[in-house]
Amino acid sequence: MELGIDIHGLEAMCRAMYEGQDQKQREEAEKTLMPLGESADNVVACFSIISGSSEPLAQVFAAACLLKIADNHWTRIPEAQRVELWKFSYSLLAERGPGLASYVVADVTAVFCRVTKLGWNDEGPYRSIVDDVAKFLEASEEHCDIGLIILNRITIEMNQSTPAIRKFFSQAQNRKVATSFRDLLLLRIFELSLSTLTRLSPPPAHSALRLRALQLAQSCLGFDFIGASFDEASEDMGTIHVPVAWRAVIEDPKTLTLFFDTYNESASVNGEVAGKTIECLVQMSSIRRSIFSTDEKRLNYLYQHMRATVEVLSNNRGLDQPETYHHFCRWLSRLKANHELSELMGSDLFPDWIRNVAELTLHCISSDWSIVGNSLYYLLNLWSKLVHPISKLKRNSSTSLETYVEKIVQMYVTSRLHALQSETSPSDWDNLDDEENIAQEEFAEHLESIPAIFRLHYDKTAQFLIQLIDPLLEQYKAGIANNVPAVDRFLLERHLAWLVRVSGSVVGGRIISTSSENQEHSDGELSSRVFQLMIYTVDEDRSRSKMGVGKQPRGMIELDGAIVDFIQSFRKAYIGEQAVSTSKVYVRMSERLGISDHIVVLDVVASKIACVLQKYGIVCGTAVVKKTLQLLSDLAFGHSSGRLLGKLKTIRSMLNNHGEESFLFMKGSSMGQQRTLFYQTLTKILFSLISLGEFDPEAEFERFLQPLQLRLEAIAAVQSDEMMINDPEVSNALIGALRDLRGIVTATLLKKTYTMFFDWFYPQHVPLLYRAIRVAAAAGSYPVCNPLLKFYAELVSNKPPRIIFDPSSPNGILLFRETSKIIVNYCTATLAQWNAAGRQGSDPYRQLYKGAATCLLMFSRSLSGNYVNFGVFGLYGDTALEDALRVSLEIALAIPVKDLLAYQKVSKAYFSLMDNLCANHGSSIVAVEHDVFVHIVSTLQEGLSVSDVWSHCTEALDHLSEFRFRSSMKDTQNSRNFAAHLERSPNLFPTCLETVFNLILHEDCTNQWSLSRPLLSLILTNEGAFLQLKKQMIESQTDPKIRDGVAAAFDKLMGDVQPTLENKNRDRFTSQVAVFRHALRSLQ
């Protein structure tokens, strides 16, 4: 942009860009204006615009440009101009701030705070920010507002690591700045927020300033004090680890009193201020216990909180506001999370406190859960923590608490039953589109909290639930026989579903170490009712005619989902490795149902699983199917339950009849992953039976695969290639078969089982799959290509070691040759289409990246499988390896580097392949064209900063540098190829050396050993670059002592290190890297 443009013209263009209705004018204005933020030379121009313009849109544009320049070109801004930028922003806010538009103030503040953080370690006025901004708080009300905005913004800025900051600060450097800010200024800022609150007039005056001060206090308390950010989505929030320097402020009763007074004054006047005050109190209640100098002061602090909550609850002050109500429930929950029950009960306030909390809980339970459901979660969580330690206290000291718990239990169950009476009717449910939500459990977070509450007086609770369940069971049984109206059945099924979910949560909450016989009796009473219901539903499903692909009743879907959830909970407590066949739970179940042990339970469960899979999954019940298949998988992969499953009649029937005609869910368009899991599970059960030696392995395996064999033969018999892809019946059959095959091969974890599958698969079915990939890839049929490629990727995977052919067997070579054909055909056809479309598409991931990632993964797994002697291919002139490498690199080069790094699956597959190629096929890597070689090395350098793949990158660079080191000792074609690359790009590896060096020094990597491993090979092959780097680091130190320390550290780094890459020498160097890193970081 020309800097001589007049201010009025610029203002007009800003209005056109931000507010213009003509798209062409907006684009022209944007094209003219945007270059202003692309160069560090335009800082002064931005100053002039902000100073000389009265148009807010021009001012905000110039401020945005300044922020963009700081974010992208900070190192190019001269130090004097950085200081000038800081002073300009400060002066603008101080002198003209009250007259600026609010969004201009926000953007200028962003520039001011960003510059403060970036310049924190430089010489300048940056660390005086609080002293300078504190003057705002003493000036006019408008200045005070701006001052609070600045302090809040700088606190947030220092507490986070944005992409812009990561360009100039490593993780360690960013944390060091945050720590310095915490130690120097954060307490002062918090005190300023408190003093501002103290000075403000009572509400309703100064509402905006009061809210700003509370936001500032919240930001201070929410600061990441120890560099271990907690997840606010977890149990609300973690303990706040304020430094010892904060002790006086925290222990001072006036601090809490200030927040309490602010709430009391604002509760009936300003709900937003009241809610923000409670949020601050939630944080205050989460402060670490060890901050207090004595137990007495800590207890006094707790009692202040209790007194305040009792007062709020007694007067119901401010709780009519939903946000305030919700944060108040969080406050109560945090009080118990951070303090012991004995401490709460030690207060004279406890009887009033627990009574008021119980009344609040009962009121919340009786309210509309769609409104208060999230708040109720915190209250249930509170009660769960209150009752958990009761067994450790004297019995007579917890009587009142137990009384309240009993009321809460009953109210929680019955209130939901009452609510179901007035909720959605069956006709309304038929119009719902979100199938997932129908079968998903309602208020799942609640059910995680209730087990401890319900099991406190479990005998009474179980009896209460039984009294509710038994009449409904009778009604359900009668309804099956009498065909009750749909509305009545719908409500009955929903009521039963709710009680089954609650029962499952309670039974699943059994803790073996503390479980008593009485509790197991109660579990048996409840479980027998649910299993009775399960038997009713199974009998009904078997007696009714199949409903085809039509929708099942919604109430039935919900009930079946609840039953599956119950089985999962029961499994964890009483089936499998933790099962106790002599448990008292089976005594009650035997008396009522004849279920004497977990084997009979498994038989009932297997029947229910089969029924669910036979009637859902096409147009409804997909969520139930997913949960059911996961349950079956969990049972099958249990050591004891997996062996028992195969002996059951129902499971044997599933092993003999497992096609789409038997299990309707397999026809569902969204059931691809479920089909794979289903066949993986069935195959696992089959192999468990084979391991018991009950029948001939090969014959039984072939019998199991017979239906799949017939399907594949039928598909292979289709004469027309076009029909194979375009005929929905044929293509769907092919896709389904591929997903089934993938599930089966995934379950072959041993040499014996894998060999059985390979002998069945090769060579009979290989031509069909080769034909399928040839036709599908040429037609761009991704629905066929993707499952086929994924099957092959699983077929060639050798983790755990299972592909172990006999020494004289050619199967390993044959497997790779077929794999190479698949890779070459797919990549060649896909690249041709991609290039024809101009290397762009509406959905690049689907059109190119997804299939490419699977091909790269397939090739990588083949190279690392250790079942192929790849030297054979070159020896006999077979181009399978050469062709696979060529097309793999071509398709990888077609993916832009930014997308390669952005898509996790793509990056993992690519860098894993590069790791394997550099480790075992270095000669192939150096033989590629120079542009390809540069691309490979450059991407390895880029990948060093990506957490998911950096280990592959370091290994690949190490292998490549080691290959260079060893080949340079001889005059071979490999050494000449490498030398040719280096001659054309001499800075390629020195840049990698510098990157690895910086990462070791500045990043807090969890595995420094792996990160430092390639450093020695890079140093030995780039000695000149290393010496230059060493010289630059030493000379960049202005302090003579630090300069000498850095020089000494470098000398120790290479001390006793020999110019070899033997393991002993490597280990010595790696240990010295750790010492070197510690020495340099201690000098900073």
Describe what this molecule looks like in 3D.
The chain has 1084 residues and is mainly α. It has 54 helices and no strands. Helix 39 (782-795) packs parallel to helix 41. The model is unreliable at 230-236 and 430-441 (pLDDT under 50).
The helicity comes to over 70%
Q: Which spans of ≥5 residues are poorly predicted at pLDDT below 50?
A: 230-236, 430-441
Which band does the percent of strand residues land in?
Answer: under 5%
Secondary-structure-derived class: mainly alpha
Kindly, what is the distance between the CA atoms of the first and last residues, rounded to a whole number of angstroms? 41 Å
Give the count of helical stretches.
Answer: 54
Largest sheet: none
Radius of gyration: 35 Å
Total beta-strand segments? 0
What spatial form do the alpha-carbon principal axes imply? globular
The overall pLDDT average reads 88
Main attributes?
mainly alpha; 1084 residues; Exportin-7/Ran-binding protein 17 TPR repeats domain-containing protein; 0% strand; single chain; ARM-like
Short account of what is shown:
This protein is mainly α and 1084 residues long. 73% of the residues lie in helices and 0% in strands.
